[in-house]
Amino acid sequence: xxxxHKGTYRAVxxxxxxxxxxxxxxxxxxxxxxxxxxxxxxxxxxxIGCGEDTKTAMVPPDxxxxxxxxxxxxxxxxxxxxRGRAPGIPHMAAQVDQYLFESLVAYKEEKxxxxxxxxxxxxxSSAEIRNVAGYYASLPPLEGVAEMKPEDLMSPYEKxxxxxxxxxxxxxxxxxxxxxxxxxxxxxxxxxxxxxxxxYLDGRRSISGKEMLRELSHVDIESLAMYYATQTPxxxxxxxxxxxxxxxPLSARCGGCHGARGVSHDTATPSxxxxxxxxxxxxxxxxxxxxxxxxxxLIDDTDKEIANLAAFxxxxxxxxxxxxxxxxxxxAAKCNRCHGAEVKNPTMAIPKxxxxxKDYLVKALRAYRDGKRGSSMMHRMSLPYSEAIIESxxxxxxNQPAR
Length: 403
Ligand code: HEC
Ligand code: HEC
Ligand code: HEC
Ligand code: HEC
Prior knowledge:
Layout: H1 6-25, H2 32-46, H3 63-78, H4 97-108, H5 115-123, H6 126-138, H7 156-163, H8 165-171, H9 190-201, H10 210-214, H11 218-229, H12 244-250, H13 255-258, H14 277-288, H15 303-314, H16 328-339, H17 358-369, H18 377-381, H19 387-398
The structure holds heme C (4 copies).
């Protein structure tokens, strides 16, 4: 991104603080996952680096000369009307002039990587870049780019809910299991959920009916994790075995990771509160016997002590890992603070993203998340399961009319 006006930079920064503050303010961590993911996507867009002089951009473009450049070099991929010819190639019709110019400069200077564009832009003069950007920006928005599929407009939570039907037989309708020995999933921490499913898939944990899990894509698994994380864990009656009161003091060693009374605040550590007691007994024994392992979780308790621990945790009140689902439209409302139609700020090169090619949007968002485009800070802030969010927000924008 090229240099911005100091005042504009400050405005963008203030804007982004305002966007993020409700999430940042949420403090301790039930929403840590949301906060991390929001930082992962939004912050890098906000931490816009500074670039070279873009004075050339201020000269009015020669649209006719720009069209000749497009005809000679760009039509094969972007068409003459600015339509990307294949998935993954961005549409450029009616795109913000300054943004197109700055992206081309970024390819030329290798701040954005794409071999074909790097080689091509190296051959182009500043004036040619200026003109071809002006040509594509001058075109009318494309019609009929959106290919609306109903599931494209579903949020990860809604997708997860639709997928969860097949899990309900064993795990309960809302993830509150009523089958003794089968774990509840309601309110469970999402990253733990994803890693548990992966552990079954790669054989570190065994489960019958593994085939059903194998059919799930990575995005499906994340969507399920997000759906279950927002469900409310039900209270449980005391089991017929174990002594909850005797289990409480034994749980002192566990609280540092699993949270006071088994309500975890860490996205990768499972909550134990309100879990099925028979499942807990089996899981704790699995760690004691080393068939499940986790560093720092050394269990040497007797069977009786394990029954007491399970009785204690099963009867605690749990809480949802996610208190409020962020739906794709809610997220888009945050994005629209910068990308929305009503935002008019010619000094800032913010690309239009509605009606953009979906595969390209996914690719661009991943590049930001993985630190391959823009700030390398996003690399550290990214989350493994934000794929589902990227998918859904990309679908949402790809399905909006271009403007
Ligand atoms: C071989 C196919 C191909 C050709 C030819 C090509 N492009 Fe592209 N273009 C792409 C792809 C693919 C991307 C996305 C690259 C990425 O992920 O950064 C892209 C991205 C861009 C972008 C960034 C758009 C955005 O929304 O960020 C601009 C601007 C651009 N091309 C302009 C041009 C111009 C001008 C020409 C002709 C001089 C041209 N391209 C020729 C395939 C091509
Ligand atoms: C046939 C019954 C059954 C069905 C259907 C089923 N599960 Fe399970 N699930 C189990 C049992 C039993 C376990 C405990 C296995 C073990 O001991 O590790 C389990 C464990 C899990 C766990 C680990 C929970 C934890 O606390 O470690 C996850 C996550 C999970 N299932 C997700 C799913 C999803 C997602 C679906 C639907 C796509 C599903 N299950 C369908 C029976 C089932
Ligand atoms: C150092 C942090 C830490 C401590 C201390 C710890 N745990 Fe864990 N525990 C974890 C993590 C992380 C996992 C998930 C590991 C995995 O993915 O296999 C886990 C998993 C579990 C599970 C499996 C839950 C499920 O849904 O399958 C049980 C049960 C459990 N711990 C019980 C305990 C008990 C009881 C204690 C105290 C005696 C304890 N843990 C102490 C971090 C800890
Ligand atoms: C604070 C303002 C701001 C917010 C909020 C914001 N963006 Fe952006 N976005 C930008 C700017 C500036 C760029 C251009 C950066 C560059 O040159 O790489 C950009 C670039 C993009 C691109 C690349 C477009 C292309 O043609 O290559 C996508 C996709 C995108 N944003 C999506 C989003 C989504 C989705 C959200 C909400 C989660 C969001 N943005 C929130 C300012 C913002």
